[in-house]
């Protein structure tokens, strides 16, 4: 007898999940569902323990895969990662004792560049305890508060996830600093250019003092030169707010050659006059293209005494007659020999390329008594600015060749540090031969 064909499955051949899917695919419901290829484990379990009453696909009962949980960041860390993700590291510019300097670009605008100061860790025990250098805290604090055309701008700050070093994102300025421009013998400039540079620096300083901030480290190396000719005050690592009369301040600030006499004598209370003195030294250096009062050794324990001796020979001896109260300062040292204060004739001999109103402004900026010294606003109100020659437009000011390493040298240098090229340089001005 011929075998009869039946659609019923043979009891010797159990239903496999694949056979079930094929059969279910013939039904309208089966055609609307995708075919799922079962795993070997599922097929084995189903064949060994068939359940004719169950119509549920055993492959659907597998536990879901465990996903990797996201990093457990707090709000501050999440914001830090978002800021870091905005920038791409582009180019290494250079390094100094204070920081490494890199060029970064925006992820959204790759042609827009920024300079990033990556602060170094030091052996300072306070930094090890706090995790950040005090000078870095000062610079971040005051650059966040000050926004002016002639002050370098800060955009962001974040820490690196790898080494936790602080990154400060500031304006990218590839023109170097004012010190490099002064020392570049191929860069010629005149009185109108000096007026323009001094005007920009004094406007930036006046803005600082108007917001009760002392810079305390003004020198040509801390003034950056923009591509459009704009000068910008930088390096606020020694800056601080004006102190109340009963609060003492340190006198160990400002690079030695630009430090005023009250700080050399150990004054613990001072105001914006310390920055105006530094500006006077910068003006004198712009005119003669060399530092005006510069003790020819690296600052040390005896550097202040030597600087006072040079100051005594250059400008005269500070006495109670010309500076009431000077002998009561903590570190006052009687100067020998006693030299009368220098008059207009001395300034005419030393600063011959500077006109008479300019010499008058310079004398008023470097008066010994800080109470009689001009303020930043007083300097800007001087008649020198309104007389010919008028200040050069900033777009026409002389410039150096474009060197990106210049900004790294300027920003990476430690506060109060002299450039290596000036260490051990002897003073060329003979004050003894000028009466």
From TrEMBL:
Superkingdom to which the source organism belongs: Eukaryota
Enzyme class (EC, first level): transferase
Keywords associated with the record: Kinase, Transferase
EC number from the UniProt entry: 2.7.11.2
Protein known as: TFIIH complex serine/threonine-protein kinase subunit kin28
